[in-house]
């Protein structure tokens, strides 16, 4: 069993904090854009369309807008976390796993791409 040094744990913790901060910012940006993108048509339709004016009250309008913003936040933050995790796992991988090319494999394409 190998021992883990304190410096290594501190470095991993700092990396995790930086990644979560980047994901939070990406999610907040996406939520801001989604809020504007959903608020404009929602508020315009409530003012212009008779059906929307009769059936969507202010609570419904807020629910539509906040749902879109929340979904955008979590989708963007999740995508950012996954991309950062993929990048960091690739950086820490051994060299023989980093070579993903098919050079020297004997054939230019995998079997399922062969014509």
Automatic annotation (TrEMBL):
InterPro entries: Enod93. Keywords: Membrane, Transmembrane, Transmembrane helix. The keyword Membrane applies. The keyword Membrane applies. It comes from the Eukaryota. The chain crosses the membrane at residues 59-77. It holds the Pfam family ENOD93. PANTHER family: EARLY NODULIN-93. This is Early nodulin.
